[in-house]
Amino acid sequence: MDEERALYIVRAGEAGAIERVLRDYSDKHRATFKFESTDEDKRKKLCEGIFKVLVKDVPTTCQVSCLEVLRILSRDKKILVPVTTKENMQILLRLAKLHESDDSLEKVSEFPVIVESLKCLCNIVFNSQMAQQLSLELNLAAKLCNLLRKCKDRKCINDIKCFDLRLLFLLSLLHTDIRSQLRYELQGLPLLTQILESAFSIKWTDEYESAIDHNGPPLSPQETDCAIEALKALFNVTVDSWKVHKEGDSHQFRVMAAVLRHCLLIVGPTEDKTEELHSNAVNLLSNVPVSCLDVLICPLTHEETAQEAATLDELPSDKTAEKDTALKNNTLVYNGMNMEAIYVLLNFMEKRIDKGSSYREGLTPVLSLLTECSRAHRNIRKFLKDQVLPPLRDVTNRPEVGSTVRNKLVRLMTHVDLGVKQIAAEFLFVLCKERVDSLLKYTGYGNAAGLLAARGLLAGGRGDNWYSEDEDTDTEEYKNAKPNINLITGHLEEPMPNPIDDMTEEQKEYEAMKLVNMLDKLSREELLKPMGLKPDGTITPLEEALSQYSVIEETSSDTD
């Protein structure tokens, strides 16, 4: 009934009546996302009628009402096929100021029309494959970049920027070819980075350093939304950029990494918005070549090295509250480097672990980022080692028991999700400079067995990457407890009584044969398969392992 009345007025009424009836329809269906199939044909005709009104010379308020209803109707994929034509797309492009003319954005009265047109285009492009093809034909990506350049430094039109960026994100998500066009032809990387700079109001103090005001106000909701959309669009543009080929590319990625460092050190209007902002920043940092991530840390200025700077040496790893205060008021320092951004990433990772769900989507990006940073940058690795794996003192509890970051990561090493447990184990392994003996000290052999088996390191040794040769120093408490530490569980155990001490020789022989028979039965029924280590450290059936060692011994004898 609503569609029928609105359609009648749209076809026959004047602008004022059309505006009133469409405003009523919009108010009633603002939260509608599922539509009755019985009225499908009427909704199609209403869309067609609205496009006919939009080509007429009607007041701005009437255009806004038409576009609001069109945005609501475009949530229904079924009605978009007949209305998604090149002509109709061009109408929306003209209203969104995405046509070829060089009109500046001076008429504030037109801003609501531009925003609603962009919202309609977002819905239509997302829900219609025909619209996606027309977007390529109409070179929509280039038009969106042109509109961004017109408004990139203007704070008063954040809504226009936000939905322009959202549409750019959708296009680059749905069409991988557009990513290359954005990156190279349209210079999307510097453009989108400048949008972020504008949203964060960055003031540069050096080539890759920005001024941070920890006591400044949070970002506004509009600035935060705009920044999040820019981060998502940048992620698509840089998704294949793990390797830098040109010096100019390296500079641009460093600038972007510096902007993302600034992003990590500011907050949004709410805690949830701050987490969303930082989450998108983490995702984008994962696309930055690891050689460019050194700008996440920077040498301290003379002012920052003054006495009021809170050094990490004075703040033990378990003093989280004190460190949060230090981060808010001063600077976190390690080896003369500013570690604020890395500390924020570490806290972000711990919060994601504490959530206890969606580890693959929410946790693995930041864990992977910290792993690669630690592998490539010595100061970052040493800082994270001090925070995550401080010198062991109390080894009475198992490594996975407790509330420290180390305990939480060790628990993840036996997670049911293979990807999660692999990246958690890899992170700890890198912090231990890929030395098996160091990893086992912090995790126990049982928790580390999966990683060591996959790496062929069950027999010990170290990984393939090179690290500095500085040695770990054990505490006196650990040295005293070490002889009694269970290597499998990784914690101190009281000596257990030997169960065979009170047995006679006959009883011992009986129990031994009983065990042999049980193992033989399990093996014959293939419920248990004896395994051994190959010379390269990987696991293989015991017969194959023994045969390989036999070949090695024969070869050695022949050589002798």
From TrEMBL:
The UniProt record lists the keyword Lipoprotein: no
Q: Name where it's found.
A: Cytoplasm, Cell cortex
Write one Gene Ontology MF term.
G-protein alpha-subunit binding
| Gene Ontology biological process | G protein-coupled receptor signaling pathway; sensory perception of smell
Keyword RNA-binding: yes or no? no
Q: Name one GO cellular component term.
A: cytosol
Principal cellular location given in the protein's record: cytoplasm
Task: Give UniProt keywords alphabetically.
Answer: Chaperone, Cytoplasm, Guanine-nucleotide releasing factor
Which InterPro entries does the record match to this protein? ARM-like, ARM-type_fold, Chaperone_Ric-8_A/B, Gua_nucleotide_exch_fac_Ric8
Pfam families associated with the record: Ric8
Gene3D superfamilies attached to this UniProt entry: Leucine-rich Repeat Variant
Protein role? Chaperone that specifically binds and folds nascent G alpha proteins prior to G protein heterotrimer formation. Also acts as a guanine nucleotide exchange factor (GEF) for G alpha proteins by stimulating exchange of bound GDP for free GTP.
Subunit structure as annotated in this protein's UniProt entry? Interacts with some GDP-bound G alpha proteins. Does not interact with G-alpha proteins when they are in complex with subunits beta and gamma.
Q: Which family does it belong to?
A: Belongs to the synembryn family.
Q: What is this protein called?
A: Synembryn
* Species of the source: Peromyscus maniculatus bairdii (Prairie deer mouse)
- Annotated gene: Ric8b
